[in-house]
User: Fold this.
Amino acid sequence: MRPRHCSPIMLTAVLAGVMLLLAGRPAAAQQNAEQLADFIERTAEIVDWAAEQVKETENQQAHRVLQEAQSLHLRSRDQAERGHVLAAFALSRRARDAAQHAVRLARDARGAENRVQLRLEHFLDYRDQILDRAREAGDERALRFVREAEEQALRARDHDRQGNYDLADHFIGAAEDLLARAARLLFEGGGPERLEREIERTRRAIDGIADRLAEGTPDGAATDLLESARAALERAEEFGRRGQPLRALQSVRLARRLAGQAAEAGDGNLDADTVQVQIDRWDGRYEQISGRVEASGAAAAVDALARARHHRQQAATLLAAGNLEPSLRQIKAAFDLLNEALELTR
Amino acid sequence: MKRTRGSLAIGVAAACLQAAVAASAGAAAAVWQPKVSAGLESYVHTYYLATADTTEAVSEVLATAEIEGRSGRRDRHAWNLRLAASGGSELLRELLDGRYQWRPSGEPRLQLDVDWLGRQYRSGTEYALSSDNHEGTAECGPTLARPDRPARSASPRPLSPLPHAVDPRTELPRTRRRGLPGLRGFGDLSWRVGARAAARTYPDSTALDRDLVAVEADLDHAAGERHIWLYQRSERRLAAAPEVRPSAWSHWTEVRATWPLRHGEVVTSLGSEVWRYDRTDTVWFDSWRLESELGYGWGDPLRAHWRTLLTMERLDADAASEAYQQFGLRGTVESYAGPVSGMLALEYGHRWYRQTADEAAATDPFDDTFALAYSDFSYVEIWLMATWTWSDRLSLEVVASYQPEQHTEQDDDTAIGYGSARVVWRP
Assistant:
């Protein structure tokens, strides 16, 4: 380690001073030898001080650098005993620098060691919680994340064992990230209870809208949208049963959007061109992705695509009849279903 | 001797695997999932050692066999068991991780957890610490039901009292015992509160012995797409020889939160670590470390989820040379849908030490003044974790990391690299 608290210029000046003293009178040389002895003695104290800190950690890098410091110190004493003042001074100087380096490494490691211990302990507790939830939910994807997190934690334990705390800290960080992803899947899916609640809430909302529609003038387009909402909800239940809570939740959200569109009332300032532009956009998008969806062979995706086509046709029919608002709602639903169809192929 | 013990351990693990597979035939509701993998792991650390750059490298070819089983979800006697054994060019490992729950009415009333990990190093291993070792915990405790809550949404239970850990290392033998009485709850609001008592003893160096007493609590709450996690732990460390090392208080706090904003989510976290010693000196000094992240994430993890974060870390310490502040910018992308799934993270940042080398300098090398000084540095962190799925049963898993630090003092430059690639087969 380069001496940071003693610049090259300063070191040169000190060495030059020592050389000048050596070239001086014998009395001065004697005084200098005593100063060197004091310097080496002080180095011994510094190396001991460093050793005291290094033994607090199992960081092997710190231990190695400390050993180097101790070796340099012993060599400087040896050189001093032989009367090689300059060599003794230089070696002692380097011993101090190495001791400094060892202390810095040990202090860094001490902090990291405490953090790794704490994070490992916490990881195990948190893992248990997530594992319980994932097993309860039967969520295979979340379980896979937990297992990957355990792999990283195992690596962290191995490197903690070796005193490589920096790397161990990073591995435990990676393990925590993976657990957080598992937790996110479970929280977003919400576990079986929460997903069930969301599905139930959406079902009640759809039923409520259906009741309201039944009380008023029959609106074929709105009823059609509700049917699509119900189909999306059924897909959500199916995904839930298959242990895919995130996809289930996406389908629940789509069901809500479709139900919301069905319930939407009011007449905005629409013109036929605006709606036609949306239909044309849908046609362009359909051209791009319909082939991929059909080739995927995913039944749910093909079903969503079919419903999207159905709503697109409804939109065109309603537009031709001058029913702009219902037509726009239909084409919005067609877009949502088209997007879902693409999503289901992934 | 090492090899004999290692072979014995592998043999025991293999026997356990066979027994587990055989047992699965008789347990209709149980699910068993075996896994076999083989690959290469490599670790490289470059740093300056007194007079020259030094590179340490450990590379290992290893194969792992693993089986995990679990009972039916609603079984009265619920259990899960994971057994793994790996053999590599550097060391052998065995892992056992199991849990048993007695659930007479669907809710757990008694729980037993066992975790054990053994390592046997091969002769001539490149690992610096190569004494065979094993560590483990066994935890057992009753669980309590709360009559006012639905059975599946909340079940506070004492956290397994009196676990026990053994760690007979020749490098630094130590034994650790701990207990965690406490309560835990589940549901949308998951929480935990408990106390922890531990004793560390080092037979060869009794001055290092210490007792630990801690209280801790955490809370995990999700409401829609909002999520918050809080964690607090306060610990009293009682040194066996306070004249050698002082006793201390430490406080750890972490807060993480996400909430939706437009088409994405705001992500933030704050961590605090405080150390207060009964007596401070040049070795043991008070400190406060603070780290935080603030960023925005968007996208769908099933397709591609992006996240960009500003990171900050700051250390205040009684020892002026230790104090620093650090800023960084991190970007991550993750995807878990296609045949290639995983995460890639890249962070770049810089650390400034508050005291410069000149300020810390001892002006006269013969003077008793001796000051530590650190050098500022820029850092890069690259993390890759990816799985390439070739089929339902076969995949390639890659983990790679590279963390170089470029210091204003060139001799302080350091770099850590890690790479792992393995083929995984799930028969």
